[in-house]
Amino acid sequence: MIRKFIRNLFSPKASASDSIVKLRVISRKKHGVTSDKISSCALKVTTCLQQAGYSAFVVGGAVRDLLLGLIPKDYDVATSATPEEIRALFRRSRIIGRRFRLVHVMCGSETVEVSTFRGPSPSDAKNISIIRHTDEHGRLLRDNVFGSQEEDAIRRDFTINALFYDPVKEEIHDFLDGYKDIQEKRLRIIGSPEKRYREDPVRMLRAVRLAAKLKIQIDTPTAAPIGDLAPLLQNVPPARLFDEMLKLLFSGHALACVVDLRKRGLHHGLLPMLDVILEQPMGERFITLALRNTDKRIQRGMTVSPGFLFAALLWHEVLTAWKCRQDAGEKLIPALHQAIDKILAIQHKKLAIPRRFDAIITEIWVMQPRFQVRAGRKPFRLLASLRFRAAYDFMLLRCESGELDPEIANWWKEFKNADDECREGLLMKEGPARKRRKKRSNRKQTNKTTEDITVVTETTK
Ligand code: ATP
Ligand code: MG
User: For the domain 299-426, what is the CATH code?
Assistant: First the structure.
């Protein structure tokens, strides 16, 4: 029965073809991954489950990364035990997930995700036991479709993500020729590419991210339908899309990913207006620099703030809206606030960027005009503000991209690193501006707008 189901899953165009259900057991001598390479928590979890009589394997990205000589980001375990059985074995564990329940097992600061072998989706599984639970309104709370190890392999996305590592025997179980694909550096979807992308369009983004991260090629039949099916991403719930975009942007290979997304036509409507921004040379340069910096930081193990990156991705939209407001006669700072409100409101409508990032994004943007004030007490106040570092880095990007005079970046670098006495010496004279301020104060206006006049000319030139 299962074999029949599996045969049905694979259309004639299937990229992982008829060899699909032939289990190959690969010995340590061949694959070379010893059990001391996996995290102590993953080792403990798999050993414990096996001792209790269940089968248990490290699966997915961790096996793939170990075979490619990379350090796994996290560990997933797949087992024949049900969530309740897993939960009963580990004191520090909890069941999570609604539709498909899995268990988080904690050891010290590490968490391993343990899931029961999963079977085919309900529509495909007429003869496989399905456990469904709904609330009083009929909303689906749980949709656990348990299956065999073989089925668990087949429901995964790519062959290289469907390898099972048994740390006790130090063997790899391979149902889909994933081991060969790893060696040949090929990303191949399991089953019919079109069917699998239709089932879950996020797999197209995963293909791009994994190819960039692992520096491997997407197999031709796996890549072929992506261009045509790209619009399907519009049906993916925004929160899920956002999570996937975070993974992509913080993969350490964001620039390569965005370039490839573009090449494959996957960028439309994905990131907030990315398509529009990338069409403008200045916007493209700014985003390229921001992504390159982010990649460098991540590769060096440094932290990156999502707020900063979103501020960068949206900045050229803000600039356009800001200019529009000024052209319509609005003063500089109110125009900036209006532009920010507009751009963030558009994002909220699309739910592209969650509101929790608004505060940091807004702060970084609002601080930008202040970098152009290099006289009086204001530079000192800016330097002392909480978000100075993020806003300063952002200003450096603006200079580097050609939007601002690089002289501003140089001045701030010097000012930031100097002692108080030297800082006083670096301050600019308030010559003509003072005159203007006097004139304005005669008109009972605050001196705030004086510096703003300088800003207008610099930002709109
Ligand atoms: P990484 O953790 O390095 O980003 P990963 O492949 O481990 O990559 P996860 O999101 O941790 O990605 O997923 C774990 C595993 O779950 C995958 O290796 C794959 O087998 C399976 N998986 C994840 N997303 C999907 C999907 N959309 N469709 C099918 N299987 C998936
Ligand atoms: Mg993973």
Answer: 1.10.3090.10
